[in-house]
């Protein structure tokens, strides 16, 4: 593929990301929980949790075409108004660089959640999450702009309107999650979140463009087959007008060492009209790592040599226990 054609393809991909309002997405979306749904904040057993993820996509078309790193930190900080309720807080950030123009999207968000418990055994929870932060977009390399008109030596009015000044805005999001332990072998979780509640104005052309609402629905059912094997069918559906993103996955977790709490994780997935996914991971007690590979099946498959995206992710739950305070016991000697 010659350089001119490569630049044109990469530029078209960049503008397609802007034009159809396609935002960041991860195949291992559950490894970046706070950006999936703010109600996932503090949703674990431990003192605090830290994690990160990195995605590279379409590098076979142009080097460093799409790169997306993200990190998060959260913790369940206190009990709620009732004995089994609790409050979680956390923060997350990401930076996404897309295409030959280096269209950069970034954000830093703070979130909080409240977990409402139901039932005597507290087997069911409804979680409310809220999130706010800073959101920004910027073109890093205007000189790389190569539209069809520019390549043909014609005037392109868009070129003169581009700006490399960062466009910043405040961001607000909210989410809900329902989770329940149906039985000893079944656990259900479904959730919904909405991002860009205030519909901030952002545009690489220096003009106002109001972000549409981003609706996300997700769910998973943990099915414990036996003491060693758990299967998890899962889905994630998003709409971000006029784009949609629908992912279905079947994950598995196999206990291979009960004494050291070691699991081997794996699975298959599909992003409809886009890519097929291979998932693999390991869990060592409180440390979980995962990798995924996307095989492109859309119209870009030939140009991308059927290579889509690669991800690597990890998260770690730290548990700090307080030493119990024991009242001293004074033994009275017998005389």
- As a whole number of angstroms, the C-alpha radius of gyration is 23 Å
- Mind telling me the CATH superfamily name? monomeric porin ompg
- Give the low-pLDDT segments: 1-21
How many strand units? Answer: 14
Helicity, as a percent range: under 10%
Oligomer: single chain
Largest sheet: 14 strands, antiparallel, barrel
Reading off the top of the CATH hierarchy, the class is best stated as Mainly Beta
Structural write-up:
The chain is globular. It has a 14-stranded antiparallel β-barrel. It is mainly β. Strand 1 (48-57) and strand 2 form a beta hairpin. It has a single domain (3-318), classed as monomeric porin ompg (Porin, Beta Barrel). It contains three helices and 14 strands. Mean pLDDT is 82; it is low at 1-21.
Question: What keywords describe this structure?
Answer:
335 residues; Porin; 3 helices; 53% strand; 14-stranded antiparallel barrel
């Amino acid at each position: 593929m010659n350089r001119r054609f490569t630049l044109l393809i990469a530029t078209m991909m960049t503008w397609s990301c802007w034009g159809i309002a396609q935002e960041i997405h991860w195949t291992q979306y559950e490894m970046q929980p706070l950006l999936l749904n703010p109600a996932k904040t503090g949703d674990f057993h431990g003192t605090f949790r830290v994690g990160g993820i990195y995605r590279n996509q379409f590098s076979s078309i142009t080097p460093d075409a799409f790169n997306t790193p993200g990190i998060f930190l959260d913790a369940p900080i206190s009990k709620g108004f009732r004995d089994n309720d609790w409050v979680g807080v956390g923060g997350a950030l990401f930076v996404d660089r897309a295409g030959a123009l280096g269209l950069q999207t970034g954000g830093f968000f703070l979130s909080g959640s409240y977990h409402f418990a139901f039932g005597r055994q507290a087997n069911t929870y409804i979680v409310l999450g809220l999130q706010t932060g800073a959101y920004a977009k910027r073109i890093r390399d205007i000189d790389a702009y190569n539209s069809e008109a520019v390549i043909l030596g014609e005037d392109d009015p868009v070129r003169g309107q581009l700006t490399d000044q960062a466009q910043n805005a405040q961001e607000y999001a909210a989410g809900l999650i329902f989770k329940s332990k149906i039985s000893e072998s079944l656990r259900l979780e479904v959730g919904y979140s909405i991002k860009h509640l205030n519909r901030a104005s952002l545009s690489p052309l220096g003009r106002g463009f109001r972000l549409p609402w981003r609706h996300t629905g997700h769910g998973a059912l943990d099915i414990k087959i036996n003491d060693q094997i758990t299967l998890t069918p899962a889905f994630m559906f998003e709409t971000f007008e006029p784009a949609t993103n629908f992912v279905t996955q079947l994950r598995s977790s196999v206990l291979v060492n009960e004494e050291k709490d070691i699991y081997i994780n794996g699975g298959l997935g599909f992003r409809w009209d886009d890519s097929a996914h291979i998932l693999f991971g390991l869990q060592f007690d409180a440390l979980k790592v995962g990798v995924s590979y996307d095989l492109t099946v859309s119209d870009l498959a030939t140009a991308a040599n059927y290579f889509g995206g690669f991800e690597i992710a990890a998260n770690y739950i730290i548990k700090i226990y307080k030493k119990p305070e024991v009242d001293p016991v004074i033994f009275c000697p017998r005389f």
